[in-house]
Amino acid sequence: MPRVPIASEDERKFIVDGIQSNFRNDGRNCRAYRPLLLATDVITTANGSCLLKLGGTVVMVGVTFEFSRASQEKPNEGRIEATVDG
Fold first, then answer.
1. Do 60 and 76 sit in the same domain of this protein?
2. How far is 51 from 42, CA to CA, in rounded Å?
3. Residue 40 sits in the same domain as residue 72
């Protein structure tokens, strides 16, 4: 399978020039970080949750679970169910 370049030569030159000039296209220097917020236990009805804000990106994750006994017919088998909401 042929390798497809991730960035064009012009994009690579732009990135390298920015690093050498200590400048990013959003105005920050190369060592400046975006504001970061990380909070846990933000969803009271979940067993675990977190909220992450990084620049303009916001991600919230919640996890719930419940324990139950295995059936007598299949005592060594359990069940895992996952749901993703977007």
1. yes
2. 7
3. yes
Is residue 27 located within the same domain as residue 66?
Answer: no
Single-letter amino acid code for the residue at 46: A
Q: Are 64 and 47 in contact (CB under 8 A)?
A: yes
Structure confidence by residue, pLDDT tens digits, 37-62? 999 999 999 889 999 999 889 999 99
Sign of CA dihedral 7, 12, 16, 22: negative
- The model carries a pTM of 0.56
Cα dist from 34 to 7, 22, 23, 52, 55, whole Å: 23, 16, 14, 12, 5
Q: Are residues 16 and 40 in the same domain?
A: no
Quote the DSSP letter at residue 3: P
Tokens for 37, please give them: 């917020």
